[in-house]
Each structure stands twice: as C-alpha cells, then as structure tokens.
C-alpha cells in the first residue's frame, strides 16, 4: 500500500529536498499550499506530516509557536507522524563539543529559547514525532543559506568568505542526504520512540577543511577571507536580520559536531554523499569546471 506524506513548506530548501526524496521513494506526496489549503483537510489520511515551514529569523517569535501548535493539533486529530527538522541552536555555547539527544538544552539567547520551547511542545504533546537535528545546510541550489548566500557568493571571483575561526569544527548537512534520511526514518516510524530525536551526523569540518575541499573541486584559485562582521554590526540598529545573525555568530567559533551514534543504530546502511560530490552539486556550475 502506498504511503502518503504532507509537506508543509515544499517550496523552501528543506521541504523541496524532502518532497523530491519522498517522490523518489514512491510515496504519495501532497504539497501544502498556504494560500488556499486548509491544514486539517490536507492532512486527512496522510501517514506523515513534514514541517518545512521556516519563517525568517525576525519573525520566529511571532509566527513559530502558532505554526507548530497548529501542526500538533492536526497530528492529534489525524494520528499522523510529524517530522521536524531540528537545528543546533538549542544547545548554547557552554557544551562539550559532541552534541546528541542527551546534550542539555542550555541556550539563553532569544532564537535558541524559541527553538527549545518549540521542541518541548512536541515532546510533551504525545504526538508521534521524529526530530532530525542537523547543522548548517548545503543545498544543490541557491536557497539563502550561509553556504550559498555568504560563504560562496563570490566563489566565481575566487573568494571564499568564512564566518568564524578556521580551526574550529562545525556541523554541516547536505540536504539531499538529510532528505533521504527523513524518508527512511519515516518508513520505520512505528518502531521508533514516540518522540524520536536523531542527530544527523553529516560532515564535521573546520573552516580550513571546507576551504581545502572547495579548492579541490573548483577550476580556479581560491582564497579564504573572513566574513566582514562589522558590516552586520553597523546594520544591526536598522536591520533585524543582522541582529539575528550576530546573535548566532557564536556557533562559528564554538567547536561542535553531531554524534552519529543513534543515527547509525537506526540506519546502519545509510551511505552519505562524499563531500567532493556534494560540493560539486552545490557550487555554481561555472566554477565546478570538469567536476560538474
């Protein structure tokens, strides 16, 4: 029997990749249209609801609680499993460098606290939930993430901008891989914990690692330069997004990786995309040269 999934936010980076992965796995995929669809009606009969909605940082406080409350209510009414993409904002800077489901949520900044409250709502709701936690995204098309919007925006000119110390490990997730994991976890949902938190290990790379990996797949010399954070500081009084980016800056100087222990127990045969392949698929085709 064909399984069905409702994708919320299918036009966004996470939702788009997950929708494509479910389609490749022969699921029946419904893509929710917020302009014309009713959530309860759209969710009737589906096995899984994937929450790809992600407002801009400045809108989190006003929008995220109500969005997720509506998903929880509908999941209760329909019995669907909810898949939520988690991030690393909940942890805060004062942690050991390996983060997992057992790592305490110690963030005290506004964006971190919003995510803590959101995750707690699912955990306490009784709704069957899969929270797949990942680091910064690497996408196969420009979608407004750190990798394409800031770091590699001038890669055609041979410039990589790195936001933090280049000797600090940082967690990354190649979105097509994360999407495949979402499908596989959804297919085994009945055997998971009612609230199943799984860290997606992805790639753990220092800035130097990322620089070297990009140099190896592009067809021109590349230099690594720091992000000009002073520009965000100047803009912060007038631009809410700049204030939010500054708030999360600490992650670029905080050593961290996501433990693959639980992930590897659940999906022991999962084969991640090699980093060079992921970078070739994610960088502009005019710089990937013969590697594209």
From TrEMBL:
Highest taxon above the source species: Bacteria
The UniProt entry, under Gene3D superfamilies, shows: NAD(P)-binding Rossmann-like Domain (3.40.50.720)
Protein name (Swiss-Prot/TrEMBL): Epimerase
Native organism is Shimia litoralis
């Amino acid at each position: 029997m064909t399984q069905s999934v409702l994708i919320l936010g299918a036009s966004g980076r996470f939702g788009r990749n997950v929708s494509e992965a479910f389609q490749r796995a022969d699921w029946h995929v419904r893509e929710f249209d917020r302009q014309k669809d009713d959530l309860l009606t759209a969710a009737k009969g589906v096995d899984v609801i994937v929450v790809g909605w992600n407002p801009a940082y400045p809108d989190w406080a006003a929008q995220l609680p109500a969005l997720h409350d509506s998903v929880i209510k509908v999941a209760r009414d329909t019995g669907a499993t909810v898949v939520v993409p988690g991030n690393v904002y909940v942890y805060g800077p004062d942690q050991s460098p390996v983060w997992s489901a057992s790592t305490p949520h110690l963030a005290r900044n506004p964006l971190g606290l919003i995510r803590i409250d959101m995750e707690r709502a699912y955990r306490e709701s009784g709704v069957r939930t899969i929270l797949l936690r990942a680091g910064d995204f690497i996408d196969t098309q420009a979608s407004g993430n750190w990798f394409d919007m800031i770091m590699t925006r001038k890669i055609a000119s041979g410039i990589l901008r790195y936001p933090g110390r280049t000797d600090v490990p940082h967690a990354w997730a190649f979105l097509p891989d994360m999407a495949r994991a979402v499908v596989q976890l959804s297919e085994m949902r009945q055997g998971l914990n009612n609230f199943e938190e799984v860290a997606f290990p992805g790639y753990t790379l220092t800035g130097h690692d990322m620089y070297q990996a990009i140099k190896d797949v592009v067809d021109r010399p590349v230099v690594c330069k720091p992000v000009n954070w002073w520009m965000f500081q100047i803009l912060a009084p007038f631009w809410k997004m700049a204030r939010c980016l500054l708030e999360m800056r600490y992650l670029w100087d905080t050593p961290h990786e996501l433990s693959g222990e639980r992930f590897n127990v659940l999906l022991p045969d999962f084969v991640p995309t090699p980093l060079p392949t992921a970078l070739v698929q994610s960088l502009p085709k005019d710089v990937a040269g013969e590697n594209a």
